[in-house]
Amino acid sequence: MNRSSETRLTFLGTGTSQGVPMIGCHCDVCSSTDPRDKRLRSSVLIETNGISVVIDAGPDFRQQLLRENIEHLDAILLTHEHKDHTGGLDDVRAFNYFTGKPFPVYCEQRVKKALCREYAYAFEESRYPGAPEYDIRTIDESVFSVDSGQNKIEILPVRVFHYTLPVLGFRIGKLAYITDAGRIEREEMLKLKHLEILVLNTVRREPHISHFSLREAIEVARETGAKRCFLTHLSHQIGRHSELSAELPDGIEAAYDGLRLVL
């Protein structure tokens, strides 16, 4: 394969909102010595056509970028405003420092309002010196582009629901990333056809108010017909990576932090 035509996917984190191990928990998963059971908050790096984007920047953002030696990003895409997906945005200050420019963040208008509240110091008229600088680019369910000036990619948002909260997933070429979903309407499912890789959330085996259960995630993956599906946003309740992997059907795999894929 011509390297310039590759799409590379790196799982920066595959854990749920509290991560694994969870503070104060001594269950088999939280006590596991298997590195695949150490799950930072969910996020991925996608590199394609000379563009590098991260989807979601939770509280572990800095740690994830240092671990993977990521020194350049073109943009961050935000699925929604919950803190486990936005809590690391202060750390774009490093990119501000080296580029001398505000950092591009793509999100819905509702999410922008939440950022203006949570990072008020970054949006004040008399900004504190050294505060992060954001170039907030509002999106909706329409196709949008990330353009570096030299390269460009098109991204198709996919509307999903996290209980009653509207959340965006993203499709880039034959790769789609869906997190914090418990429901996907029929017309949005059509956007997930003909995929090479689908990344999909599940927290545990039992039903959950705002996330797919393991059974539901498997059903959604099968309905899309994706060649491969990788499960993310995994809590300690889902079990150890080795145990979960052993019971998954063909074509469906448990993701883990640091996993790299090429398509």
Question: Would you write up a description of this structure?
Answer:
It contains eight helices and 14 strands. It is an alpha/beta fold and 263 residues long. It has one domain: 4-Layer Sandwich (Metallo-beta-lactamase, Chain A), CATH 3.60.15.10. Helix 1 links the parallel strand 3 (51-55) and strand 4 (75-77). The mean pLDDT is 96.
Overall number of structural domains: 1
Q: Give the biggest beta sheet.
A: 7 strands, mixed
Share of β-strand residues:
25-35%
Question: Quick one: CATH superfamily?
Answer: Ribonuclease Z/Hydroxyacylglutathione hydrolase-like
Regions with little confidence, pLDDT below 50 for 5+ residues: none
Helix content: 10-25%
Distance between the termini: 9 Å
Summarize the structure.
The protein is of the alpha/beta class. It has helices at residues 61-67, 83-86, 93-99, 109-118, 120-123, 186-189, 214-224, 241-247; strands at 7-13, 43-48, 51-55, 75-77, 103-107, 134-138, 144-147, 152-162, 165-172, 175-178, 197-201, 228-232, 252-254, 260-262.
Features:
7-stranded mixed beta sheet, Metallo-beta-lactamase, Chain A, alpha/beta, 28% strand
Strand-helix topology:
Layout: E1 7-13, E2 43-48, E3 51-55, H1 61-67, E4 75-77, H2 83-86, H3 93-99, E5 103-107, H4 109-118, H5 120-123, E6 134-138, E7 144-147, E8 152-162, E9 165-172, E10 175-178, H6 186-189, E11 197-201, H7 214-224, E12 228-232, H8 241-247, E13 252-254, E14 260-262
Parallel strand pairs: 3-4, 4-5, 5-6, 10-11, 11-12, 12-13
Antiparallel strand pairs: 1-2, 1-14, 2-3, 7-8, 8-9, 9-10
